[in-house]
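Example record

The entry below shows one chain as it appears in the dataset: sequence first, then structure tokens.
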Amino acid sequence: MTKIRLITEPTVIVLADMQLDTDGANQLLDWVKDYRPECVPDNLPAVAAKYGGGPGWRERAMALFPHNGHRGDKQAADHWLTGNELLVELGGRACYQSWGLKAGRKDNRDYIARMLFPEEPGMLPHASVAYHAKMTFFLAGISRRVSHELIRHYVGADRSEEGSPSQESTRYTFHPGHFAVPPYVINGGPSTVQTFRVAMESAYQRYLSFIDQEEGVWAKANGKNPTAIDRKRIYEAAAGLLPMQACTSMVWTTNPLALGKLFGERCSEFADAEFQRFAVKWREIAEARWPNLFRKLA
């Protein structure tokens, strides 16, 4: 029997996020200095020296903010804010012209929280600024069944909150025999896991046998091994023989509002158990990377 791998932990990797363009930020500062000169200090060199710049920054552009670009909390006093967090803040400050010296809320964390989830009576959220932030993930170790749930609930042209996926092809790729184990199976103990393993091994063997047989038939008829579209036809037919717990992978680009909605729904104990396991790990990674964007969203 062909050996397979049972996967019990999903993979979530941050691939990319938005970064402020240094030249653009400096040009914005020049515009603010012309349009709202009262917001910009006259002694920009002294301000630059005080703020000390940051990764990828020219120091003078920090005058757009009423803070020095750090998170500001005691646990991460020396940790720079991400481009996504600064971009969301800039989106709000552009709407209200609350730059630099004329800023109200002085802290990125408090400013974003007040825009997205205001606690004052009668205050409405200004959540649209969160769409400026974008983050891209590589996702793997999840079943095709869970990826179907992800696609059908969180993608669509008529949705205001969505993701943009690029998923592993079933036509171009040969499946390596990895299968996501549902938490229910794990909780059932060794005997349940073994029953699951035998079922996946049997299905995977049928998948391999089908490919071998059809490639052999094609090669005998054509005098060479199938390639290009001919091999795709075999792979796409064979893919249907794999169970829904066959693992898949994808690149997923999204935004804080979409992820906050997903986390709120899928981290729940009432969600699909495998999806919940996946969503909880995804949330932990998002909160660690962009704490000011996600601390109240989920």
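Notes for this example: The first strand starts at residue 5 and ends at 7. Strands lie at 5-7, 11-17, 135-143, 164-167, 178-180, 247-254.
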